Structures are given as structure tokens and as C-alpha cells.
Amino acid sequence: MKCLVTGASSGIGKDICKYLSVLSHEVIMVSSNKEKLVEACTEVGSNTYYVCDLTKDKEVDKLLKFIEKEKPDVIINNAGFGAFGYFDEVETEKEIEMINLNIIALHKITKVALKYMEKQNYGYILNVASSAGLMPGGPILSTYYATKSYVRSYTLSIYEELKSKNSNVVVSVLAPGPVDTNFNKVAGGSFSVKPLSSEYVAKCAIDNLFKKKMIIIPGLIMKLGVFFSRFTPTKLLLNIALKIQHKKRTKSS
Questions:
Q1: What pLDDT was estimated at residue 191?
Q2: What values do phi and psi take at 69, rounded to 5?
Q3: Which stretches of the chain drop beneath a pLDDT of 70?
Q4: CA–CA separation, 13 and 106 (whole Å)
């Protein structure tokens, strides 16, 4: 199958590309950093890449035309970033870039892919959210949590629509907890618990996507955390999240 992966130059995205390549699928790697992308292609063994800054509307529109032309069988919307800080401290420009990348680009790519996939009644779309998207909110990472909640809600709604049509198109959402990637360096924080390896998360994501699982949560600890959070009052969850994010921020400074 032909697979297109955004945020493919590092972390989960690169390891998803590696795993898809091991499974003998053709991989198109997408990222904004050409130098890192070319290096990643060499590691993965792919000779197909597309340089695109998904925070820019014009570049996203060009990528959409490329997707319509190539019609990948598998789309992995992995690109995204976060920013630690109290809401009134984080630069608005950075938040808008986050919304453009985490929500708008993902939304547009999913829409374009879904249209041709429904016509051919075949295809896979994996939208990468976060365990953050399963929580009521995340103080000190407020915009990031909100974007990942959108990704979760958006994807689950599409999943149910496809199910009602008896469609063979698969749409899943990946909701990992802490993963050992470059996320915290970009966001400006550090993990308060031991993260999972991006290799483990990548394999878990693809294996479960092909099994047509709706929500993919790697790791037993995170699964248990999400389960028990259902029985915890919202105010308490928000207070716990505040303390956790504050520790991450303090630890990184």
C-alpha cells in the first residue's frame, strides 16, 4: 500500500515510516525541515518525500493537491506540537500556528483523503491525538489539550459515520501518553513519568489501525489511567493536570 505520513522527520512519525517500510509498504514522508527529512528518508529506506510547512495555508493546499493526485491508501496525520505556559503567557502567534498544524491541516487532509477513499470504499486514516485529548483540560498546556480534544472528537464522529454507512474505510485515533520524542524540547517542558519509546508506540499504532481499532492507547499504565479518570470529578482531574504540568515545566527550567 501507498502510505503518507506527516511529521515524518523525527519521533513517532519517523518510526511509523520505518515500521511501514518493514511491512513492505511504500512510504511518502512529509515534514517542514528538508534536511532532517532527507536524513530520515535514508534511515527509513524511502526515496519519496514532500517538504511542507503545515502551519501555512498555501503549503497545505499544495499538499492537498498532491494527495488527490497520489491517492495514498494510508494517511497518518502525525504532525503536531505543544507549548508549556499559562494561557496569558504563551504567544498568540505560537498558539495560532499550533491550531493551524494540530487542527486545521489535519482536518483538511482527512477531508480530502476521506472523499477519494469513500469512492473506492477502501483506505486507512490515523489521526494522532494524545492522552491529553481524553482529558477535560490541561492547565499550562491549555491550547495543546484543546487541539487534541478536537482531534479525538472529530475522528470518533467520522468513525461512527463510516460505520453507519457500512464503509470499508477505517479511521482511528492514536492517544499516547508520554513518549520519548522531541515534543518536550519544543514545548518547553519535561516528563514527570517514564515515557514509552516511539518505536513501541509506532508499532502499536499501525498494528491496531490495521485491526480497525477506534481508539488506540499504547501502554497498560495509560490505559488504566484513562479508565479510572472516568470516575474522577472534573475539578480534581484539572487540579491533578495542573500539578503534573507545573512539575514538567519546573523540571525543565
A1: 46
A2: -75, -45
A3: 136-137, 181-193, 223, 226-229, 231, 234, 237, 240-241, 245-253
A4: 14
β-partners of residue 2 are 26
Locus of grid cell 495509560 = 222
- DSSP H helical segments within the chain, as ranges? 11-22, 34-44, 57-70, 92-99, 106-120, 142-164, 183-187, 198-210, 220-229, 234-252
The residue count of the chain comes to 253
Instruction: Please give the Cα distance from 116 to 161 (Å, whole number).
Output: 16
What's at 24, amino acid-wise?
S
Beta-bridge mates of residue 174: 128, 216
Distance CA 216, CA 229 (A): 17
CA 249 to chain centre: 22
Positive or negative torsion for Cα 252, 200, 130, 37: positive
Do the Cβ atoms of 139 and 245 come closer than 8 Å? Answer: yes
Task: Give pLDDT tens digits for 225-240.
Answer: 766 667 677 677 677 6
Domains recognised in the chain with CATH numbers: 2-252 (3.40.50.720)
The three cell numbers of residue 6 are 506527516
H-helix or E-strand spanning residue 2: strand 2-6
> What phi and psi values does residue 26 have, to the nearest 5 degrees?
-75, 135
This prediction's pTM: 0.86
> Rounded distance, CA 51 to CA 138, Å?
32
Are the C-beta atoms of 106 and 55 separated by less than 8 Å? no
Write out 23-39 in H/E/C secondary structure. CCCEEEEEECCHHHHHH
Query: Which of 39, 36, 31 is closest to 80 using CA atoms?
Result: 31
